[in-house]
Amino acid sequence: MQARSIWRLGGLSVWQLARNALRDMSANNSFGRASELAFDFLFALFPLLLFVLTLIGVFTSHRADLQGDLLAYFSDFLPPTAFALLNTTVTELAANAGSGKLTFGIVLALWFASGGVRSMISALNLAYRVEELRSWIKVRAVALFLTILISILLLAALALVLISGRAVDWIGAEMSLTPEVVALWKALQWPGAVVFMILSKALIYYFGPNLKNRRWHWITPGSAFGTLLWLAASLGLRAYLHFFNTYTATYGSLGAVMILLVWLYVTGLAFLIGGEINAEIERAAPGPI
Q: Of the residues 179, 199, 227, 276, which has the fewest C-beta atoms closer than 10 A?
């Protein structure tokens, strides 16, 4: 039987798809699971940054400049108060970073990040209504594999932003390129982040759930909607906190931690919503998609 396009939504209307996805999200406690993902993301974030900064310090002579570029990249997505917390913590970590901490950063980041991916796998099994029959070791191995693969994509994306951005500055100066051309390249950071998010979701949606029949899709309605929702929520949270920063006013310095957790919660929830959308489409489809 010929596979149908996943973009036909399995024959569902947009309204039917949204209603079914929301119903199953409530039944699967997806909003609570997003909190679990935010906790795992928080523990994985700083070891990963420690690893990246240590790597920068070992292999480059422009450590301070690249560190600033790396943090500036995060400032595009994080709310200002959360970014201030991240900047302070990362600066303290970088001050004591050395080659001896490289292995520690890798192991710690992989352990916590793979724990988050394992939580994603569990959530996807619920979304697809399948039982996890793989052994704990196999599930952990799949989670570790996905973590490493996604980490490589993340490092490649960061290299593209940090190194290639500097190369464009140099080429622009040498070839007397207009500031508009240089600015256009730097504006591609956001589309690059979108591509990374979509590809990361595609990998987890394909390898994560315990499905017998798998079909690879570069872009799915769930990954596209989840990514756009993440971008919109990130920008909306930044705008809200710019005009109504009640967290810091109410909770003081603890407000920055809460804002960072809110942003990580939104990140996890966007992933879970995308998984539910894809699962609903595949269940509703009369044949393979």
A: 179
Q: Domain count of the chain?
A: 1
The answer to whether position 10 is within a domain reads: no
CA distance 165 to 185: 8
Of 92, 116, 128, the closest CA to residue 265 belongs to 116
Q: Which amino acid is at 140?
A: R
Residue-wise pLDDT for 258-288, tens only, equals 777 888 888 889 889 999 999 999 888 876 6
Residue 196 φ/ψ, nearest 5 degrees: -60, -45
d(CA 119, CA 115): 6
Domain of 121? 20-284
Alpha helices in 30-135 (DSSP H): 30-59, 63-75, 80-95, 100-128
- Residue 86, domain member (yes or no): yes
Q: Distances from the Cα of 139 to the Cαs of 136, 227, 253, in angstroms?
A: 5, 25, 38
What does the block give as tokens for 251? 């909770």
Handedness of CA 11, 16, 18, 23 (dihedral sign): negative
Domain membership of residue 43 (yes or no) is yes
> H or E segment at 129?
none
pLDDT tens-digit series, residues 148-159? 887 777 666 655
* Dihedral sign, Cα of residue 256, residue 262, residue 263, residue 264: positive
What are the phi and psi torsion angles at 130 (to 5°)?
-120, 150
60 found inside a domain: yes
Question: Would you list the DSSP string of 256-287?
Answer: HHHHHHHHHHHHHHHHHHHHHHHHHHHHH-SS
